[in-house]
Design goal:
This protein is α/β, with parallel strands linked by helices and about 525 residues long. It has 19 helices and 13 strands. Helix 4 packs parallel to helix 5, helix 5 packs parallel to helix 7 and helix 13 packs across helix 17.
Length: about 525
């Protein structure tokens, strides 16, 4: 339902994740308390949900905190305010592990201990010592019916990928003891809720937490985070209408604008049993606070950190398939500490890129889940990280991306192909290894994904498939790529296979078709091209 707080689109926020403050200052708050009611009124008392960074997890935790504080007045206009929930007050222990330093084990331990002592002070319990497990045990035994909320539980591991193995081992031991206290004190805990980016695996650190219910892919919580299409229209409809009125020269209909917003920021699917797809909430917030500019806000969220770190350990080229098939067991069979080691298989990397928000569920059967890029924003971000991963140290990737975009959008085919030549010269082929032919095709497609253009790889026609078709404005580009072949033969294939016929009907509307044959020689890395007349 729409609440009273959402009267003005100027109150859209991208930084505040404190529920009480958002309600008090009139910020736009998309009501997710239906899922909170489902969570707290169910039979499960120990629950876990994973979602990508900046996807509303901290706000969800803050809302839970306010609920268990018994602050009924904050919820009077929300879904849960109209239910039979009693709003009884409980002592809440609310920890955020993203705030812990992992530069040294002593700082990590002192950070955990300090947080628990401060929680005790807030609840009227004086605690002494520097052992997080003992402090938590003392606090729980001083309280009755405590609620524990842990936000970003996996942050110590994902932020310490490059730290010494001894620090990771010591952190694991500290956290194993900490979670053992929670398990052994379950009779004193009213409710336990934990979130993070990476899905929980009942191994290693969490062997003591085998009583946790993992709701990460549960069908009934598929849209508990992010915005559904209905929520976008209900809570941001005013902003969409204003955007459309101010840009009538760009969009023929309101639906055309909505379709573009959907293509950029929608597409996340968090349960293989649900078809529900949601928008990235922070990207939507940035979109409306940035005068409805279609930009890549994904990297602003910090969501790419995990994938960038993974890029140092794995061959990202092997991950850029049209669809990545991952066994269902791959989402639960790896240990969180595999991230910091060298034990990551391609399936595990695919699952981790899903957790990080770079990939989402495209389809599934009883054996496997297929993963795809959710939208143009994320695909562009991934392609830029691919470029950074493999390019030479002395290349400024930003200026090169600008040149590629500017020449293409101005229809400067010769200038664009010259920029493409610079693009391939920028790569360090020592990093690419023996997959040069495959890399060429992927990196070429990545140019258009990176520029957030409508690009189709292996575009099927009646007589064959063109390697790359790109549509922008009134221009359509058809590229045929030859590795260790001739650009002339590539252009000849476009004509012989009659790739342009598929779009013949659009030529009547003024569409201009560009035909380009491209050749790439893997030995001397020479790029050549021929532009059809």
């Amino acid at each position: 339902m729409k609440n009273d707080y959402n009267e003005d689109m100027r109150n859209v926020t991208t930084s505040n994740s404190v529920f009480e403050e958002m309600v008090s200052d009139g910020s736009v708050y998309v009501d997710k308390t239906e899922y909170i009611y489902k969570l707290v009124s169910g039979r499960e008392r120990f629950c876990f949900i994973s979602r990508p960074r900046r996807y509303g997890k901290s706000l969800f935790c803050s809302t839970l905190h306010a609920l268990f504080d018994g602050k009924r007045e904050l919820f009077k206009a929300l879904y849960i305010g109209s239910t039979d929930y009693d709003f009884r007050s409980y002592p809440v222990i609310h920890l955020n592990f993203a705030m812990l330093s992992t530069l040294s084990i002593s700082w990590f331990q002192e950070g955990m201990s300090g947080d628990i002592r401060r929680q005790g002070e807030r609840l009227g319990v004086r605690l002494e010592g520097n052992d997080p497990s003992q402090l938590l045990k003392d606090l729980l035994y001083a309280l009755d019916d405590a609620v524990i909320i842990i936000d970003e539980y996996d942050a110590p591991f994902t932020s310490s990928i490059d730290q010494e193995a001894s620090i990771q081992t010591d952190m694991r031991n500290i956290l194993s003891s900490f979670y053992s206290v929670i398990k052994n004190s379950s009779e004193r805990i009213r409710f336990f809720f934990m979130t993070g980016v990476v899905k929980l695996a009942n191994l290693s650190v969490f062997s003591a937490m085998n009583n946790l219910r993992d709701l990460s892919m549960d069908e009934s919580f598929a849209s508990a985070f992010g915005y559904t299409q209905e929520e976008l229209l209900e809570y941001f409809g005013e902003g969409i209408e204003e955007c459309y009125e101010e840009n009538r020269d760009k969009y023929r209909t309101r639906e055309e604008l909505l379709e573009r917003i959907r293509g950029y920021y929608d597409g996340y699917r968090f349960s293989p049993e649900s078809e529900e797809r949601v928008y990235n909430p922070v990207s939507i917030g940035y979109f409306f606070t940035s005068d409805c500019r279609f930009e890549n806000y994904w990297d602003r969220t910090g969501a790419s950190t995990l994938a960038v770190e993974l890029a140092r350990k794995v061959n990202l080229v092997s991950m850029v398939d049209a669809t990545i098939e991952v066994r269902r067991s791959a989402f639960t069979s790896f240990d969180i500490l595999d991230i910091t080691g060298n034990r990551l298989r391609k399936e595990s990397v695919g699952a981790l890129l899903y957790f990080a928000g770079y990939l989402t569920i495209g389809g599934s059967d009883e054996d496997a889940i297929s993963l795809v890029f959710p939208n143009r924003e994320v695909a562009s971000s991934f392609s830029e990280n691919l470029l950074v991963r493999y390019m030479k140290d002395d290349i400024e990737e930003g200026s090169l991306i600008i040149k590629l975009g500017r020449t293409f959008r101005h229809g400067d085919t010769e200038g664009f192909m010259g920029a493409v030549n610079e693009y391939f010269n920028a790569f360090s082929y020592d990093l690419i290894g023996g997959e040069r032919e495959r890399f060429f095709h992927i990196a070429f497609h990545g140019i258009f994904v990176m520029l957030r253009l409508l690009a189709i790889s292996e575009d099927r026609g009646l007589y064959g498939r063109s390697d790359e078709t790109v549509l922008y404005g009134n221009d359509l580009w058809i590229f045929e790529l030859k590795v260790n072949g001739s650009a002339e033969d590539a252009l000849k294939q476009i004509d012989e296979k009659r790739y342009t016929e598929k779009y013949g009907y659009l030529m009547k509307t003024g569409l201009k078709i560009h035909r380009i044959g491209v050749s790439f020689m893997t030995e001397d890395r020479k790029l050549s091209w021929v532009i059809g007349q």
